[in-house]
Structure formats: structure tokens, C-alpha cells
Amino acid sequence: MQKKQELLKEVFGYDGFRIGQEPLVDALVSGRDAMGIMPTGAGKSICYQLPALMLPGITLVISPLISLMKDQVSALVQNGVRAAYLNSSLTEGQTAKAIANAAAGVYKIIYVAPERLFTPRFQYFVERAHISMVCVDEAHCVSQWGQDFRPSYLEIAQFVESLPVRPVVGAFTATATDAVRRDIAELLKLNDPVRVVTGFDRPNLYFGVQEPRDKYAAVTEYLSAHPNACGIIYCLTRKTVEEVHARLCADGYRAARYHAGLSPEERRSSQDAFVFDDVRIMVATNAFGMGIDKSNVSFVLHYNMPKNLESYYQEAGRAGRDGQPADCILLYGKRDVVTNRFFIEQDQENDALDEETRRAVRMKEEERLRQMTFYCRTQRCLRSFMLEYFGEPSPMHCANCSVCRQKTEKVEITRQARLVFCFVRDLRYPVGAGAVCDALRGVESEGVVRHKLDRMRGFGLLRSVPAARMREIMEHLIASGYLIRSGGKYPTLTLGAPAYEMLECGGTVTLYAAKEDAGKAAAPAQGNRRMTQASDPRLFEALRAKRAALAKSIGIPAFVIFSDATLHDMSAHRPHTMAEFLRVPGVGSKKAEQYGRDFLHVIAEYEKNSGK
Ligand code: ADP
Hints:
The protein is of the alpha/beta class.
């Protein structure tokens, strides 16, 4: 079992597993089927890529997303893993070559489109190969209840059964209601799978709904308030994409456009411009984004209401994959309902279906459209509305959506924050957030007594602050990077750079807190927000420029080299040696070997020039 940790670090550069990953890895490695339902950005790929390296034979990953396959394979190759993909983007010759390589045992992981499974060439290969595992990505495509039903997914179970030896099967998706989960297990014929469902909540995403009189004005207002942010504007129709894009360009914004009516070359160049950070705004229909996993998208505006909450959550979820705060704002208009209804009626996508099934699918779509409309009109917390739709219990108040914000107020908490910082700074050794809260509130809890916190100067100085507010304050300080919470079973607190800065230079701290009349029991934002490290913005920009130059020269998207989170960590910790470089999360040995010198050089130059 030592081995999986070593591989995680060695190949992928990570020190530990994220929630949900380890049980899925263990299941698959031990030969047990598994089903992982985890939100976008949770790290599903590792759950099957790591077992793939540990199992003796080849792993097939079935994925419907051509662009994602390409990125995943590039990322694997960057990490030194032998991988390839087979889909309609390859020429006949390329396919033949890839299959010949596969048969010769060149690849450990092969991504394949579901439509390819029964082609004679692929069949010839799999009948002779040792397939240890089949993993189904975007597994919700197997269900008519899912938003992306693909009839070809229904053939996967038959494919698995046709193999000479049944491989272990894993199924993964981000979006699944109860009905979809049941369908995945049943239709893929999973054999008593280990099920892992991690929370759907993405606490770093702000959700908003507006019903503006002038949608375009609402967009430009947002864009001018966020001049450097990078994001996507989704529209329902090609025509709207064209209109919004043309107006934005005429108004001086650097924007690209993407929809199915453009030629493949136009689409590719638009996508590249966005992925490579040449433009910061992408105006698109839902044709864009299937498989885009650009990590630094900081807003997703919906110019129109999408057809259902599954689509909305998936599209909006393309924001903030790096864990940084991001905005998801839906600009609702009554006409959106009419357009969507028209689409449902016109939908000829599933012409492989018989009349009865088609009618059933249509009824489900209408119901989902109704729920989507309720979301736009609700007076409830938007996050809890959505989480409940996906079958997850949720706090009734998240403080990070447009409904909650209306019911929240901005409160200055500078004094409380300073007292917390002094207290944490003066600790003899780090302790957990609960003990700090108790001590400052003068509560002689078990933790306070055990760590002798009642003897500290700050003990009881925040006695007048109610416990719930105190927790809210602590969560906010952690989420904003003032306090750093360690990982592990017993997380402890230390001060982040912004807290030191505040203690030295002053400043104010504010918090959106539940208004008194909005319910005293209102819970603070939940979840494990990733915090912004004390990254040096100028060094970060220098590292980013290096990454962009390298990416361009090799012809791969920048985030495949390193994520923004990895660059932030680099700029915060400034490694000087290869050993230190390897300690940065997201740096495995192959990438260290390939890029280490370049990035270490940028850091050294930066320090030399800035005298830091
Ligand atoms: P998903 O497929 O669930 O949307 P990905 O597999 O693309 O998510 O992972 C999202 C991001 O999280 C990637 O940048 C990935 O490298 C990172 N990641 C995955 N697992 C870990 C881990 N154990 N520690 C740190 N980062 C991780």
C-alpha cells in the first residue's frame, strides 16, 4: 500500500489524497468495481489513473469528450505515463498506428470514444490484449435522466462482457441525481461497486441570478468591474453568441466566440485563444466547454437560462476549478423559457430512440426545465436549492449566493480578527480552530484546558461574541487566507502572510454575515475552501509568463504544464533547489526533470532583480 502514495507523489506530484480518492483507488486496485460521484475539480482522474499504473495490464478509459481526452493524454504524457487516445479526430493512419502500438504493449492507458468499442480493428486488439480495467468517464451519459444521454454508452456493458477476462470496472461522473446513480450501476452492470459520493458543493463559487432589463448592460457592467478576470459567457443560441460577441468586440473587449455553426478551424482557433490566455472572454453556446478544463476561469455568466440544472451546474462549474473564488451568474429572462421549450420540442438528437422512449425523455426534460425556472425565481438560498436538487442535504444559508447576500450584511470584524491573529501568533504550538474559538470566548473546554490556552493573554477577550458568529469569523479568516488550516485528521491553525501584514501595517477586515432578522441559526459557508497562499503576484506573473512560453513552444495548453494553484504555491514558497521544487504540490518527478530548471531560473532571476 506504500506504493500508491509513492506513485501519487512521484508521478502526479501530490502529497496526499483528496476526499474520496483513496477508497476508489483501493477498490479498483483490489479488483472491486467502483463508482465515484464527485464534483468537477474534485480530482476524479487520479482515481483511475493511479490504479491504472498499479494494475498489470492496460486500462481503457471510455470518454465522450474528444477535447478532454486529448488534454488528459497530454497531461499523462507530461507526467511520464504512456498513454494514447482513439477517437474520430484521428486519421485512419493515426488510428492504425495507435492500435498497432497498443497491441505492442506501448500504452498503459488508452482513452477511447464509446463509438469505437465495437469497430473491427479495436475488437481485434482487445481480444488479444490484457485489459485490466475499464473506466467510464462522464458515466451519467448512460442514463436518459442525465443531460447528455448517449445511446452508445448503453453498449459498454456488452463490451465489458465480451472481453476474454472481465476487467474491473470503474464509473465516474460529476453530476448525478439518484435516478442517474441507479442507472449507472444497473446499465453498466457494475458488480457490487464501492460507491463514493463526495459533496457537490463548491464553496468557492458564488451563485447569482439577476433579471436585468438590459442583459448586455449587465454583462459589460460585470466585465468592467472585473477588468482582468477570465471567463465564459454562455448563450442559448448561435445567433445570440454572434450578437453578444460582435457588441463586445465593438466595445473594445478581447473576446472569442464558439458555437457549432463555425468551421472546425474557427472553433479550434477560438478555443486555443481562450485556453492559451490570448483572449480573456469566451462567448459560446453549450457546445463549448465539454471537456475544457482550464483551471483559471473566474466567472461564468449565463446570458440565458439553460435547459436544466444539470447543464447549469456543469457549465457554471467550469469556473473556479483552481479553488479560487469565482462567480457564476445567470441572467434570467422570461423568453429563455420559451426558447428552451422550443428546443425540447425540436430535439432530434436521440433519433435512435423509439417513439415511446422519446416521449418519456421529453417529459423528463420538461420537468427539468421547470426546476431550472424555479431556481431562477426562488427566494431560497440558491446553493441549497441546487444541492437539494442533486439529493444532498445543505445548509439553508450559504452567505455566498445572490439570495443570501440580500439577506446578509457587511460587518466589520477588524478588532475580532486582530485578536484572533495575536492569539494564534502567540501560541506555543499550533492548535485547532475550535480550541482558539473557545479560548477567545472564555470557554474552558477540554481543548482549552489541555493546551493551557486559559493561561494566555487573549483568553476571554471575545466573550461577547456568540459562538455561531465566532465560527463564521474563523471560517472567513481561513477562506481568505489570513489563517492557514493544516491538512490531516486534526487540522491546526497558523497565520498566513495577510495576517502578519495586517498586524504590522493595519487594515480592515469585513465579512458578509447573516442579518440578525435573517435567522440567527444561519450556518456559515461550509466546506473545505482552498485558501489563497501568500503568493507573490509579480513572481506569479513571471512564472505564468514562463509557463505560457513553454506551453506555446510545445503546443499544449498551459494548465497541462502546471495549474495556477501550483504556480501560486511556487511563488509563495520560492523553491531554490530541485528537492524543494519537488515539494511543490503538482510537481512530479517527470515534470521536475522537464521544467524544473526553467522555473527555478525564473525564481532566481526574480529574487536577483527585486532584491527580495
Ligand atoms: P475532475 O475530473 O474531478 O473534474 P481533475 O481530475 O481534472 O478533476 O482534477 C482537478 C484538479 O485537481 C487537477 O488540477 C488535479 O491535478 C488536481 N488534483 C487531483 N488530485 C489531487 C490531489 N490528491 N492533490 C492535489 N491536487 C489534486
